[in-house]
Design brief:
Elements lengths: L1 E2 L8 H4 L8 E8 L5 E8 L11 E5 L16 E5 L6 E8 L12 H4 L3 E9 L5 E2 L9 E3 L2 E7 L3
Antiparallel strand pairs: 1-2, 2-6, 3-5, 3-7, 4-6, 7-8, 7-10, 9-10
Length: 154
């Protein structure tokens, strides 16, 4: 977990007009047994997530689109494609306004209350052929969809 820093992605600080010292983020590295895997990662709040939380979002390193281009600037879903990097993709779950006078160390406890879901998996190099994951090394296959992976955050 990093506090008061921007995610280490080229161009992120140019496109995302937020108070960088107030940010907090957790990196998530996806590693598949093959290259060319694509899919979505979605972050959602749960009943345990504190009310009044500032925007939360997810960003993948190497996105073809500029970061934070829509309004609101933090999307809850981002798409990845592990092209040419051995099946590896890194996402950053970002909490805006985590560091405040009331929370000078940030809001680390928030991350463990979020649901993270990796779905819409497909083999991009094979015409977006659907991909069925095996047993994940972290997280588990989602109870409502055996083709999706649900991952807890620290």
């Amino acid at each position: 977990m990093q506090t008061g820093l921007v995610p280490p992605m080229p161009g992120w600080s140019e496109h995302c007009r937020v108070d960088f010292p107030a940010l907090q983020y957790v990196p998530i590295t996806l590693q598949a047994g093959r290259d060319e895997l694509a899919g979505h990662l979605t972050v959602s709040t749960t009943a345990d997530t504190p009310a009044g939380l500032a925007p939360t979002g997810v960003f993948f390193d190497g996105s073809a689109e500029p970061y934070c281009q829509d309004d609101p600037p933090f999307g809850l879903t981002d798409t990845f494609w592990s092209h040419g990097n051995g099946g590896r993709a890194t996402a950053y779950v970002v909490l805006q306004d985590a560091v405040t006078p009331a929370t000078p160390q940030g809001r680390a406890e928030v991350f463990s209350t979020l649901d993270v879901r990796i779905d819409h998996l497909r083999l991009h190099s094979e015409g977006d052929l659907p991909y069925t994951p095996g047993t994940p090394t972290v997280g588990a296959l989602c109870a409502d969809d055996a083709d999706a992976i649900c991952v807890p955050l620290p």
